[in-house]
Amino acid sequence: MSKLFEDRVFWITGAFGALGAATARRLALAGANVIASSRNVDTQLFADWPHVVPLSVDVADDRSVRSAFAQIEERFGRLDGLVTSTNVAAFGDFLDLTDDDWQRVIDAKLLGSVRPIRAALPRFIAQGHGAIVAISGRGGIAPPPNHFPGSSVNAALDLLVQGLGRRYGPLGVRVNAVAPGPIRSPRFDSMATTQAATEPTRLTALDGPGTPEDVAAAVAYLLSDDARFVTGTRLYVDGGGPPYA
């Protein structure tokens, strides 16, 4: 892979999940230094990746997020992009889901994206450039009946990205979302067990489900200079959506 991101520095939250880990590897292979953060850090996951730096961060705690950003500033003196990829699962019938179920998703994925963006944004503004990519999801426009908390947060993230892209685009900061559809991962398997069995090839217009690497490729594009004229948008990585209405 070409060194598309030579000497650039990217911060990925939720980097030890399937999508975050695939993105970290993709960016590192392209020459970037990657801060891979998560509340629970697996020191072995990136043991063979010298340009991936694990960092323990709890995105549900603003002090933890700001401390992490300060450490990134001290070590690298720059930050070129941020990817927010945190998530928690809360599946079930709407009437069975509690306030706590909803709050966990809101705090981990919505506020868990707001906090790192808020920490990094002044740096991007000061240097006149920066790219932010939030991982949302296709549920933001087509919510599965067993996934209302996550789908609602996906919709909120997409709206946040649209607003931030317009607000900070004139200052050189691009903000976009990647909305995956069915992607093969532990989370996908968890969702599949809560709904009727469906042949994987019938989940999308293409031969699905996709892979974490498919999502990582989309994120890398939005972080790159190839996407210099793209902001405030949502890029679907969902195999074209369901093939049948």
UniProtKB/TrEMBL annotation:
Boundaries of every Ketoreductase domain copy: 8-186
Signal sequence interval, chain numbering: none
Record has Oxidoreductase as a keyword: yes
Gene3D superfamilies per the UniProt record, alphabetical: NAD(P)-binding Rossmann-like Domain
UniProt cross-references to Pfam families, sorted A to Z: adh_short_C2 (PF13561)
GO molecular function, one term: oxidoreductase activity
CDD domains: SDR_c (cd05233)
UniProt keyword annotations, A-Z: Oxidoreductase
Transmembrane annotation, as ranges: none
Domain of life: Bacteria
SUPFAM superfamilies on file: NAD(P)-binding Rossmann-fold domains (SSF51735)
Family: Belongs to the short-chain dehydrogenases/reductases (SDR) family.
The protein's name: Short chain dehydrogenase
The species this protein was found in: Caballeronia humi
Lineage, broadest ranks: Bacteria, Pseudomonadati, Pseudomonadota, Betaproteobacteria, Burkholderiales
